Amino acid sequence: MEIALSDDQEFFRDTTRKFLGSECPIPKVRALRPDPDGFERGYWRQGAELGWTSLLVPEELGGGSVSGNGVADLALVADAFGAHVAPGPLLPCNVVAVALARSGSSEQQGEILPAIVAGEIVAAWAYTELPPHDRLGDVALRADADGDGYVLTGVKSPVEAGAQAEQLLVTASTDAGPAQFLLGADTAGVNVTPLRSVDLVRRYARIQFDGARVPASALVGDAGNAGADVEHQLHVAGVVQSAEMVGAAQVAFDLTLDWAFSRYSFGRPLASYQEIKHRFADMKMWLETSHALADIAARHDERDDEAARATSTAKAYAGEYLAELVQDCVQLHGGIGVTYEHDLHLYLRRITVDRLTYGTPAEHRRILGALRARVA
Predict the structure, then answer these.
(1) Could you read off the pLDDT of 200-242 as tens digits, one per residue?
(2) How far is 47 from 59, CA to CA, in rounded Å?
(3) Cα–Cα distance for residue pair 371/365, rounded to 1 Å
(4) From CA 362, how far away is CA 238, in angstroms rounded?
(5) C-alpha 101: how far from its chain's center?
(6) Which of 3, 26, 147, 273 is paired with 263 by a 20 to 30 Å CA distance?
(7) What pTM does this model have?
(8) What is the pLDDT at residue 83?
(9) Do residues 187 and 181 lie in contact, with contact meaning Cβ atoms separated by under 8 Å?
(10) Which residues have a Cβ under 8 Å from the Cβ of 347 and sit 6 or more positions away?
């Protein structure tokens, strides 16, 4: 990220980077590949102590930001996560935390939210769905009123940390409009199936709701009025993913640039050839533009048309061009670039997952078109 940082933000950023460098070196990330959770609970609690899960929660609820803009502070953590391809449910825990902080009941804010902030439990956002309801904003899972509660029916997939979460924030459709519910993952009628992921340490799941009954107290906010909260949660998700893609792409670019100057071909450094220079110029342009767009998106701590435009621009551009950048990095490394032993594929995996979840580049371009049409 290239956001102008205060002294406190610089300290926070450097502390996060040092911690991840110590606790999550690349060999450790590789070793976590067969782990069912993809991360260690003790490590996650330590990260929570550093503030990873509390930046979007106001001080009166046990949180607090570094700069006054929690979204920008969280982007610093996401950038470091991308640079280290770090494990842990950063995005889902923060999305659920901000949802509860904004609209949760006193019971949810008093019991569940502090546990998320402390890293004692993991929370997942059950939002995305299977085709034909996989487009951003298309929610088919039903929540039908039944006596003094609701019955949830439908499927959510892929859900990040769905099989690791103790609490699920479920976005659903009701007769009155969109609604969100917070329920335990062990609720009767909730069936969780782990999925395989391209990312070595990021875990996803398919969650089937077979008439899962929840009390009215499970509502987060009012039934039918969750639209604004969902939009804000998508904004947070987009900022986190954009910053993370930038962090991963920066490391991939630096690795490749160093390789090109140290690798000799016909007695000359690979980087001295004109065609290679042109490719690096393109990659540098894509990278710097992505830095700037992620920076602009992170400056918005509330969701409105301007924030939506900034977030969708960042995700559409970074998702399109940073994936191309890392693919070029792989090609420039030659044969070793496509081996499992080289680290490049770790960054390619992280960017690939981020670009395809919570809106593909094409979906975010459609959002930008709709926003432009609204202004016109």
Answers:
(1) 999 999 999 999 999 999 999 999 999 999 999 999 999 999 9
(2) 18
(3) 10
(4) 14
(5) 19
(6) 26
(7) 0.95
(8) 98
(9) no
(10) 82, 85, 248, 249, 251, 252, 326
